[in-house]
Amino acid sequence: MKSNSTKSALTEKEGISQPQNMSTSSAEVIQKMRKKQPSSKELIDKILANDKSALSRAITLVESTNPVHLEKANTIIQSCLPFANKSFRIGITGVPGVGKSTFIEAFGKYLTSIGKKVAVLAVDPSSTISHGSILGDKTRMEELVKDENAYIRPSASGETLGGVARKTRETIILCEAAGFDTILIETVGVGQSEIAVHSMVDFFLLLKISGAGDELQGIKRGIMEMADAIVINKADGDNINKAKLAKAEFNRALHLFPAKKSGWIPTASTCSSITNDGIADVWQSIFEYKTLVQGNHYFEQKRQDQNQFWMMETINNQLQSNFYNHPKIIKLLEVNKKAVQNDAISPFTAAMNLLNTYFK
């Protein structure tokens, strides 16, 4: 019989313990710093000093639904308001695949090269199933994101109609207070987003591509009427001739629309975000528009109209939020939904009953 004291060859030997990489006191200091939340005044002072980190933290507060965060965000926005409204706001839209991110990177790099400070507010579509969002615009704009005179903020569209982030308007104010003189707002390009962006920018740029049937859309109203310029992107390689033909078709179509209140006559042009051909021409067109509308005072009038519009939108959004979060409505809503589904009551009667309950 073998002795129990015999050690197996597979016995694990005690290894060498690793030294501590950081002292306990240092770790505690770092943890305290992470937990520490800067005050509203600290964030305001840093934003006005062009601190991008403070700007990002403030935008996160603006986008939050936490009542405490919203109160803090409103204080920051109100303090930054006197330093805002000094930028030129450009909305950029187009169908998915038109090359919006690539264009914005090339256009943004050109703007910083001529001394502009550029903020890009990119709205990423959210899934209606998982409610998640990729937020990949920073990844696609590899060069611009490293530019000291540029700032890129991707935001999830959430459940906002049309894909414009709920707080994009307030984010513009913070970016302007931080010293950015050119704001680029990219939409997800899914229908109603164009309308929302049009109501918060000074210039509306529509990106198109040739050879995809887009030329036929030139004779239709809607998005074409809102555009201040049309740019046929990806005009490079074998696509140059197709892009030139598309440009001619769009220019013919633009003449069919009524004159704009601004006095500006929109035109179509071509560009390549890969070779940078035509990028400078896009800015020249925007600069000419800016000179015109500032000279005839349309610029100020449009800004004033937009302020009124967003006041009404904020009221509507707040009323909707208050309605759905009302304790009585929360209880009655599901009951009325089932009644409507079972045809026990009409949708209109159910809606009026709920509204009457809310306003009592």
Describe this structure in words.
It is a single chain. This protein is α/β, with parallel strands linked by helices. Helix content is 48%, strand content 11%. It has a seven-stranded parallel beta sheet with strand order 3-2-4-1-5-6-7, with helices on both faces. Helix 2 (40-48) runs parallel beside helix 4. Helix 6 links the parallel strand 2 and strand 3 (150-156). The protein is built from 14 helices and seven strands.
Fraction of residues in H or I helices: 40-55%
Q: Structural class of the helices, strands and pairings?
A: alpha/beta
Percent of residues in beta strands: 5-15%
Radius of gyration (CA) equals 27 Å
Which H/E pattern describes the elements? HHHHEHEHEHEHEHEHEHHHH
User: How do the strands line up in the largest sheet?
Assistant: 3-2-4-1-5-6-7
Contiguous runs where pLDDT drops below 50 for at least 5 residues:
127-134
E-strand count: 7
Coarse morphology = globular
